[in-house]
Specification:
By secondary structure, the protein is mostly helical. The protein contains ten helices and two strands, in the order αααααββααααα.
Length: 262
C-alpha cells in the first residue's frame, strides 16, 4: 500500500487552480499583510469566511485536504480563550465565576481581542494551505524565474518543494517499520526521546544524502549552471481571469490603504 503525502498540490480543474501562480502569491502576501494591518475583529471574521468559502470553490474539502484541522481549530480556540479571559479592559459583559463580587470578568474588548487573535491565526494557516493545495510547485518556480529570479535559486526552490513530500512519506515509512519491529514511541523519558529521534532521523539523513548525491551527479551530467539563461518546457501565461484577479487585488489594496490613512 502506497503512502501519499498529506500536504501537497492537489490537481483540480477549478478557477483557483487555473490562476497564474504569481497572482495567487500576490493574493497570499496581500491577505497576510491585511490581517496584521487591520485590527478589527469583524474584518478577520470576513477574511476567514472568504477563505473557508474558497475551499469548495477550489474543489477541496477541509476535512479531507487540510492536515491537522482539529489541532488548528483547537489552537485557535485556545488563543481565543486566553485573550478573552485575561483581557479585562472595556465594558464587563458577564463573569465566568459569579461568586460574591464576581470573578473572571468577560469584557467586550476581551471578546474582540479573542476573535481577532484566534481568527487571524486560523485564517493565516488556512490561507497558506489553500495556496499550497492549489499551486503546482514547478509552475510557481518557473513563473518566479521568468519574472527575474535566477534559475539556480528557482531550481533550489523546486527541489525543496518536491523533496519535502518525499521525506514526509519516507519518514512515515520508517516510523511504521519501527513500530512493526516493536519500537515504542510512547516513552516519556528525555533520554529515550533522544534515542528515538536518532533512530528515526538517521535513516532519513542517509536517504537524503543519497538523493542529493544522485541529483548532483545528474546536474553535472547536464551541465547545470553553464549558461546564464535557460529554456522552459512548460510556460505559464497570464489570461484575462488573472488580470481580473490582479485588478481586484489592486482595488482592494487601494481601498485598504485609504481606510488606514483616514
Amino acid at each position: 500500500m502506497s503512502i501519499k503525502p498529506k500536504i501537497t498540490y492537489q490537481p483540480k480543474d477549478s478557477l483557483l487552480h487555473r490562476l497564474h501562480p504569481l497572482v495567487k502569491l500576490a493574493w497570499l502576501v496581500a491577505g497576510s499583510l491585511a490581517l496584521f494591518l487591520v485590527s478589527s475583529p469583524w474584518w478577520v471574521l470576513l477574511c476567514l469566511g472568504l477563505v473557508l468559502s474558497a475551499f469548495p470553490v477550489a474543489g477541496l474539502s477541509l476535512r479531507r485536504d487540510v492536515r491537522g484541522l482539529r489541532f488548528l481549530v483547537s489552537t485557535a480556540g485556545l488563543l481565543f480563550a486566553i485573550q478573552t479571559v485575561f483581557t479585562h479592559r472595556g465594558v464587563v459583559l458577564f463573569h465566568l465565576l459569579p461568586l460574591g463580587a464576581g470573578y473572571l470578568p468577560i469584557t467586550a474588548a476581551g471578546l474582540a481581542s479573542g476573535i481577532y487573535i484566534g481568527g487571524r491565526f486560523l485564517t493565516l494557516i488556512l490561507l497558506s494551505m489553500l495556496f499550497v493545495l492549489t499551486t503546482e510547485p514547478g509552475l510557481l518556480a518557473y513563473a518566479l524565474m521568468r519574472a527575474g529570479l535566477p534559475y539556480r535559486y528557482g531550481f533550489a526552490l523546486i527541489t525543496a518543494l518536491r523533496l519535502a513530500p518525499v521525506f514526509e512519506v519516507e519518514g512515515n515509512i520508517v516510523y511504521q517499520a519501527q513500530l512493526a519491529r516493536g519500537v515504542r514511541y510512547d516513552v516519556r523519558s528525555p533520554r529515550r526521546f533522544l534515542t528515538l529521534a536518532r533512530q528515526l532521523f538517521l535513516p532519513l539523513l542517509v536517504s537524503a544524502l543519497s538523493k542529493v548525491d544522485a541529483l548532483a551527479v545528474s546536474m553535472e551530467g547536464r551541465c547545470f549552471g553553464k549558461y546564464r539563461s535557460r529554456t522552459f518546457l512548460r510556460q505559464t501565461r497570464a489570461t484575462w481571469t488573472d488580470w481580473v484577479a490582479l485588478g481586484l487585488l489592486l482595488t482592494l489594496s487601494l481601498a485598504l490603504f485609504i481606510h488606514l490613512s483616514t
